[in-house]
Amino acid sequence: MTPTNAYAAPAAGAALAPFQFNRRNTGPNDVKIEILYCGVCHSDIHQVKDEWGGSIFPMVPGHEIVGRIIETGSNVTNFKVGDLAGIGCFVDSCRTCPSCAAGEEQYCDEGMTGTYNSYERDGRTPTYGGYSTHIVVDEKYTLHISDKLPLEAVAPLLCAGITTYSPLRHWKVGKGSKVAIVGLGGLGHMGVKFAASFGAEVTVISTSAGKEDDARKLGAHHFAVSKDSAQMRKLRGEFDFILDTVSAEHNYNDYLQLLKLNGTMVVVGIPEHPSTVNAFNVIGKRRSLAGSMIGGIRETQEMLIYCAEHGITSDIELINIDQINEAYERMLKNDVRYRFVIDIASLNKA
Ligand code: NAP
Ligand code: ZN
Phi, psi (5° rounding) for residue 291? Predict the structure, then answer.
């Protein structure tokens, strides 16, 4: 067992506070990672506040993990001590269902084992995430991380990166595509970088007029404020593809109307409450409303390689662990540019 320092939410909506637990011994197929950085995803906030139901406490959030391997099990062939490694949103799955066989483990028929707020395959051992000093994970669910990019800015790729990369690839966004990214936060700013890098013409649709300069620096060609109905009216029928990254309640119909014939809007944001769709907004131009969840191990590795080759990382604000509750408050006010990342060295001092 490895004694592990962490920060945990003791109960729904409670502030995060220091917490200690033991990581399992490194099994034959496992790697033990000393965590260096962990990104802060809005999903951490939804789950700490139990907005999706079924949260497990105490909860150690964190699924954008980058660190260094300090021990390997006897069967491990893909990693060695000293390698950089990443862990994303899941640490296991059934490994046999069609989704797992296809390398889309996030859609496992039995449900993926979340990196935190989940149970191991035994159904009773809670998983604890990356706001912690160490993690032990099967090598099959561990990613290789390049040493070419600043590690702290790579961490958010493990969730915000793959969650935006995967649908852009699946729906073949590229040269000639007119794309809107709705919401310029952690996911949204990665969506802009990828869509622009793939050659699309990108518009950011935001509630925050003050983010226009940033949007353009991130690679967007156009910017619109969603609260401005005249601007929104002008964009009707404009887009082939819309990526909706919004974390809070909003009206899907306002955005569906912006799709052109056969256009698709993909929802990745997961607000607490359901939304209503007016049938006219999908039948009118044979539009599609779809969703997408993170990405499988194979595609996550592909995305990490793409980022290393193209110099793509997240724009981050590095924080110490004792700033985590304040970081949550700021994210709820859309005041993050554009991802908080925890320097896990601060946990050893906490
Ligand atoms: P974030 O950094 O907090 O960004 C969310 C952005 O949404 C905000 O910056 C804001 O952008 C916009 N927004 C907030 N309230 C809004 C409102 N009422 N109406 C319209 N826009 C609003 O969050 P994140 O980490 O990117 O996560 C975004 C969502 O994706 C969360 O719900 C998270 O749980 C979910 N998620 C899903 C997956 C998946 O696999 N599908 C993976 C990770 C996260 P503007 O200031 O530009 O308006
Ligand atoms: Zn996430």
Answer: -135, 170
